[in-house]
UniProtKB/TrEMBL annotation, chain B:
PANTHER family: SUCCINATE DEHYDROGENASE, SUCCINATE DEHYDROGENASE IRON-SULFUR PROTEIN. Gene3D superfamilies: 3.10.20.30, Alpha-helical ferredoxin (1.10.1060.10). GO terms for molecular function: 2 iron, 2 sulfur cluster binding; electron transfer activity. InterPro entries: 2Fe-2S_ferredoxin-like_sf, 2Fe-2S_ferredoxin-type, 2Fe2S_fd_BS, 4Fe4S_Fe-S-bd, 4Fe4S_Fe_S_CS, Beta-grasp_dom_sf, Helical_ferredxn, SDH/FRD_Iron-Sulfur. Residues 153-182 form the 4Fe-4S ferredoxin-type domain. This is Unannotated protein. Residues 7-106 form the 2Fe-2S ferredoxin-type domain. It comes from freshwater metagenome.
């Protein structure tokens, strides 16, 4: 038999985030949930990891000299030419990257807001964390640093207005002129350290957020994240160091 | 023989949710074979004898299975001992002369009731949203008519160990309720009896959880704080099931939306 219980004010669960969004489109409903946003964060993260890996591999061409590097830079514009006209495939990639960055940042922003709502009153005594890492606690900040650096990087070597010696199309000379200024080189190195820290937590987080959980590879997940972060960020840091050291000139 | 510890307690006192709270200090001499809650009982006996208001804190079974006790002790949910609820934490874990800081769980989903007691009704709402299986009544089925692999039964049992204390939310830097919800989902989703409602259940419980708590950023603090040492692997399974719930052809599997 059901029993009527007296309801006291404040006795029920609180209102925090409001009811879930209803939509005719499953993808909209999915993205409006926090777990859906974590999926999007992970999938765009995979795409962006692919980009930073290919970007790093392409830049290794600078060790082969000016001709090889400039040829590589030009080849990006003639990808799949003549199936696609000159530069079209590069623009498809650029639009894809912009969309991925957009969703990656939007989901991070919305989830951060949600997390702040979830604990309006902080702990009044110091926490004694057991499992968090420096990387996991600083994802927002390393993310912001990478975003600001990305804008600077484009202004320096794509648009060229942050680089006084910029000549459109002379990729190798632009890069050397930029990295020869030691403050610029330091910005690149610091930003890539931030990228490495971001990748260390992100690389592991992908597995968790997308439910890739299998005893066959679980023990390798942290190692993959660390290896990928060191590979990409470490080699990226080598480029300005190589220019400053006169290996690339 | 037990030894006596002289401790300084720093405890959060707050009359009600609307009041402003503050830490208050208490000196206590307690035997090292007392549990943490017994230590608080001693303090409260002293307070009552002094005609002062005793410290309010949640407790019930005191044997680590009911999930009533809570407390942030020295910045860790359920204190410094791994895999232990506050009631099973004994004072021998501390040293003579220690200062111990005691705070309530802090989360918007767990509003403070008084002192160290918080309202965990949000967890009940999540269970109501789908933490059950529907069984038509009738004659009792034959034993072992539904085959369950031993490994699946073990994994489901690991998830079912959740006592719903809320340490995962309290320990999470984002106040996320993912470990609780994942445990309550997966102990059913791993078993054959849980399959008919698996997708509808996952969708309903996840979305109810997100009405109250933050989002998971994969720190892993929850599994360290959990008195039942429930693994974040269950969160990974929940994330996968949630995508399936949104992607699958639910009309065909008869799993229409709950509610």
């Amino acid at each position: 038999m059901t029993q009527a219980t007296e309801s006291r004010p404040g006795a029920d669960a609180p209102e925090v985030n409001g009811p879930p969004k209803q939509s005719r489109f499953w993808i909209v409903e999915f993205y409006s949930s926090a777990i859906g946003k974590k999926w999007v964060m992970a999938l765009t993260g995979i795409g962006l990891m692919g980009f930073v890996l290919v970007h790093m591999v392409g830049n290794l061409k600078m060790f082969l000299g000016r001709t090889e590097f400039d040829h590589y830079a030009e080849s990006l514009r003639t990808l799949l030419y003549p199936i696609f006209p000159h530069g079209v495939v590069l623009w498809i990639f650029r639009i894809g990257l912009i969309v991925m960055f957009g969703f990656h940042i939007h989901s991070a922003y919305t989830l951060t807001r949600m997390n702040h709502r979830a604990r309006p009153i902080k702990y009044q005594s110091p926490r004694d964390y057991v499992a968090v890492t420096f990387a996991s606690r600083t994802m927002r900040w390393t993310g912001i640093i990478i975003g600001l650096y990305l804008i600077f990087h484009l202004a320096d070597l794509t648009w060229g207005f942050a680089n006084p010696d910029f000549v459109r199309g002379a990729a190798y000379d632009n890069l050397v002129a930029s990295f020869e200024r030691w403050p610029i080189a330091i910005i690149y190195i610091l930003a890539n350290i931030a990228l490495g820290i971001h990748l260390f937590h992100g690389g592991w987080s992908i597995f968790q957020s997308t439910g890739m959980n299998n005893p066959r590879y679980n023990s390798a997940r942290r190692g993959f994240a660390a290896g990928f972060a060191i590979l990409v960020a470490g080699i990226n840091c080598l480029f300005p160091i190589a220019v400053l050291a006169g290996v690339v000139h | 023989m037990s030894t006596t510890l002289n401790l300084k307690l720093k405890v959060w006192r707050q009359e009600s949710a609307d009041d402003v709270g503050a830490f208050e200090y208490y000196d206590v001499a307690v035997a090292d074979d007392a549990s943490f809650l017994e230590m608080l009982d001693y303090v409260n006996e002293g307070l009552i004898l002094d005609d002062r208001e005793p410290i309010a804190f949640d407790h019930d079974c005191r044997e680590g299975i009911c999930g009533s006790c809570s407390l942030m002790i020295d910045g860790q949910a359920h204190g410094p001992q791994k895999g232990t609820a506050t009631c099973q934490l004994f004072m021998r874990k501390f040293s003579d002369g220690d200062e111990i800081v005691v705070e309530p769980w802090r989360a918007a989903g767990f509003p403070l009731v008084k002192d160290l007691a918080v309202n965990r009704a949000a967890f009940d709402r999540i269970i109501e949203a789908g933490g059950y299986i529907s069984v038509n009544t009738g004659a009792a089925p034959d034993a072992n008519i539904t085959l369950v692999p031993k490994e699946a039964a073990d994994a489901a049992m690991d998830a079912a160990a959740c006592i719903g204390c809320g340490a995962c939310v309290a320990a999470c830097p984002n106040s996320a309720g993912n470990l609780f919800t994942a445990a309550k989902l997966q102990h059913l989703n791993l078993l054959p009896q849980g399959q008919p409602e698996r997708l509808a259940r996952t969708e309903a419980m996840v979305e109810k959880m997100e009405e109250f708590f933050g989002s998971c950023t994969n720190h892993g603090e929850c599994q360290e704080a959990c008195p039942k040492e429930i693994s974040v692997d269950f969160i990974a399974m929940m994330n996968r099931d949630y995508l399936k719930a949104k992607l699958a052809n639910r009309k065909r599997s008869g799993q229409k939306k709950f509610g």
